[in-house]
Amino acid sequence: MTSAGLEKQTDTLTDGISRGIRRQIAGVGVAQLAQTYGTPLYVYDALMIRRRCRDLAAWDTIRFAQKACSNLAVLNLIRSEGVMVDAVSTGEIHRAEKAGYPTHAVLMQSSDGLPPVHPIVYTADIFDRDSLDVVAKLGLPVNCGSADMLEQLAARVPGAHVTLRVNPGFGHGHSQKTNTGGEGSKHGIWHEEIPDVLRRAEWAGLCVSGLHMHIGSGADLVHLAEVAEALERVAHEIGRSLTTISAGGGLPVPYKPNEVHADLGSYFSLWDATRKRLEERFGHRIRLEIEPGRYLTAEAGSVITEVRAIKRQGTKKYLLVDAGFNTLARPVLYGSWHPMSLCPEKESQNQTARGPAEEEIVEDVVVGGPLCESGDIFTQQEGGFVETRALPATSVGDYLVIETCGAYGFVMASNYNSKPLPAEVLIDDGQARLVRTRQTPDDLVRGETV
After folding, report:
1. Which pLDDT value is given to residue 434?
2. Dist CA 403 CA 270 (whole Å)
3. Can you tell me the distance from the alpha carbon of 262 to that of 299, in angstroms, rounded to the nearest whole number?
């Protein structure tokens, strides 16, 4: 299958973006949001999340990797779309419960003869002591990424059904740091060790009923398609006990202008054919899962930040904003590229809007934050090399919108430099709702003593 056959251009939502000027997010004014809730501010578009959930409706189970965006309102929205959830910690199990997912061993039956499915799966490469206690107490199914987890689980939950997360020996992602396959990755059970792991599971009295592979976050579909063949080979080793297979996550989303949405129809057809061959081999139905994180929420999220200073450093012009890598860490971690647009502040003051000729004026600028750290730059390549971005002419007080921030955005935010965590707002049907309050200085020191 060629890359041309797996990728195509799909919908593009401009939502008020013109020549790098953005006045609205999901029908609500950028300036209005900034002035109501303060900056920096995370804003999520509920309609976009629903659209991305429905893109994957052909799969038997969509299971959201909530580590991408774990706000309770977002989880509740995704739950309302019939999407199950993946949890990688006791905290994420707790979040899922607070968002309305049933936690005790509740299996959801299917009317089409497929094996039942649990709303929550615990996926990890280890059990810390708290997570093992919670999994045992609630009877949650486990996706085991290390063989040592088998005996630990069997000691607490005899006879449990488990899923094996297998490292197929190769990986891919938008960065080496997000590559979850191959010898350089800690994730999953090495594919050559499956026979020994199956013996360990049998000796421990466990039933291996699920198989999962995930090679990296932000991989392209050509590399993801290779996983289907690898998973089918391992499935043959496991045998008829298998009732569920998972294609994992890693679905790409477009960040740069020349990037396109993937052809998910062709991708599903590939996996559906894999599933059908296994059903024919084993003589029973098999549930086909996909585990997106980034795909469901990335495009829905934006960060609104205010331009607080403009200056030149030699030949480079810098825009300094009130968001930093404490707000959005992806650029400093991966050199990630995020779309950016400008909302002129004077328009929020009911002054004359910029005319077309004025909006055509662009300049190459470096966008940086307020932190006492040289790496606090939003326009950088992986490795920390500073680059510029073409943006409309900007004034202090204008608002900058950093887009496609809904995955691995707020969840990676920190209190570095003792900066409070930003607020989060969800926009649904043109109505903005505060779904997380901004931290206060007292919040920063809560729990500390002198």
Report:
1. 98
2. 31
3. 14
Identify the bridge partners of residue 84 per DSSP, sorted by sequence position. Answer: 63
Q: Helix (H, G, I), strand (E, B), or coil: what is residue 277? A: helix
Other CB atoms closer than 10 Å to residue 37's CB: what's the count? 20
The DSSP-derived string for 165-178 is EEE-S----SSGGG
**Res 265: pLDDT:** 92
Contact 210, 243 (CB under 8 A): yes
Residues in contact with 31: Cβ distance below 8 Å, sequence separation at least 6, in sequence order: 23, 343, 345, 347, 348, 399
Q: pLDDT tens digits for 161-202?
A: 999 999 887 654 443 434 445 566 677 898 889 999 999 999
Q: Which of 53, 207, 372, 405 is catalytic?
A: 372
Residue 372 annotated to the active site: yes
Contact 166, 212 (CB under 8 A): yes
Q: How far apart are the first and last CA of the chain?
A: 62
| Residue (of 55, 44, 46) closest to 263 by Cα position | 55
Backbone angles phi and psi of 386, in degrees to 5: -70, 135
pLDDT for residue 187: 75
Dist. CA 299–CA 296, nearest whole Å: 8
> Which pairs count as long-range contacts for 197-204, CB under 8 Å and 24+ apart, including other chains?
197/147, 197/150, 197/164, 198/237, 198/238, 200/147, 200/150, 200/151, 201/150, 201/162, 204/150, 204/151, 204/153, 204/154
In this structure, what DSSP letter does residue 435 have?
Answer: E
Tokens matching residue 247: 């294609």
In 3D space, the residue among 198, 315, 249 whose CA is nearest the CA of residue 65 turns out to be: 249
Provide the 10 A C-beta neighbour count for residue 4.
9
Do 94 and 130 meet the contact criterion of CB atoms below 8 Å apart? no
d(CA 199, CA 209): 14
Cα torsion 287, 288, 293, 299: sign: negative
Sign, CA torsion 58/252/88/143 = positive
Burial class (CB in 10 A: 0-12, 13-18, 19+), 170: middle
Residue 254 pLDDT more than 60? yes
Q: How far apart are CA 369 and CA 375, in angstroms?
A: 9
- Quickly count: other Cβ atoms within 10 Å of residue 284's Cβ: 13
Amino acid letter, residue 56: L
Q: Categorise residue 16: left if φ over 0, alpha if ψ from -120 to 50, beta otherwise.
A: left
How far, in Å, CA of 157 to CA of 136, rounded? 6
